[in-house]
Design a protein that fits this description.
Layout lengths: L15 E4 L1 H10 L11 H10 L3 E2 H4 L5 H14 L2 E3 L15 E3 L5 E3 L1
Antiparallel strand pairs: 1-2, 1-3, 4-5
Helix pairs in contact: 2-4
Length: 111
């Protein structure tokens, strides 16, 4: 008897993603003035552009709802437009900078 359960998909969290050569070509093509229609939704294209040379899942989460981000990453991985970066090639994760806001006394304070 065979199992009807699909193999679980790998976790996308705590990983770093970057464009593949095919993904870079897709970004470059869509950014030309002669491109009139694209095969990717604007949302998928935005995720693709953010991946660039490397972006952490946690950084992407700042801009997108979790389910949409998960679906977008899975789609782009299946299309071969992005790849998960191998541990030895991963850029250092830099958490978002804390905002600096002027206080009522004119000094800059950390919020």
């Amino acid at each position: 008897m065979t199992s009807t359960h699909a193999t679980p998909l790998p976790s996308l969290a705590s990983r770093c993603y970057r464009l593949t050569p095919r993904g870079r070509a897709c970004v470059d093509m869509v950014n030309t003035k002669t491109q009139t229609t694209g095969s990717l939704s604007r949302y998928l294209h935005d995720v693709l552009e953010m991946c660039g040379t490397g972006v952490w899942f946690e950084q992407l989460q700042q801009f997108m709802p979790p389910r949409s981000l998960d679906e977008s990453l899975r789609s782009l991985l299946e299309l071969g437009l992005i790849e998960a970066v191998e541990p030895g090639e991963v850029p250092a994760y830099q958490p978002p900078a804390r905002r600096r806001t002027p206080s009522k006394f004119g000094e800059l304070t950390h919020s």
